[in-house]
Fold this protein.
Amino acid sequence: MNQLFTTSDGSHTLYVPELNEHYHSIHGAVQESEHIFIKAGYDNCKADPLYIFEAGFGTGLNALLTAVRSINDNREVFYTSVEKYPVGNDLIKSLNHNKYAGSDGKNIFQLIHSSAWGGMHLICNKFNLCKVEGDLADFIPAFPIDLVYFDAFGPDKQPSMWTREIFGRIASAMRSGGILVTYSAKGDVKRNLRYIGFDVKLLPGPPGKREMISAKKI
């Protein structure tokens, strides 16, 4: 059973005993999400409207921070996320993510998690969310993608999620110049992305991690 865990920046994550893995960095869940997905991803992708695909919805932290940023920017976002094992409501209610998302964070976080799975729903302002309950290995994007948040469990824990086949399927739906960001900087991940045809760059990682990947579709 997943367990609540407080990371170094005070924000919560979940620990999965079966995998001996956390949903986010123990050095700071919010710091990690902001560094990788918002600053290296969202802020570097200028499309408006912006179509985001997330591999691994998890606790909804990335969606929350993206929604808040899109409100501040008055930017239209269509955000689709695939999750095979949705987190239970009791654990979701225990998370303190909303405390790091401004004065309306609690309301936005509740709207994100109360929205129905399947179908695109307007959450707030111009932020639209589609949560898909399913296996990433079976999901075929049928919409143009500008930005990918690749946030599956690590390649050492779930190697089947980091294959050329999956990256290729995602890439086939991405616009030219689209960006994929992920916390992993492992050699196999870099090689698989380059094989598919991405221009792969290593960027400084968040606290506790030396490097991360930013890959652009050529």
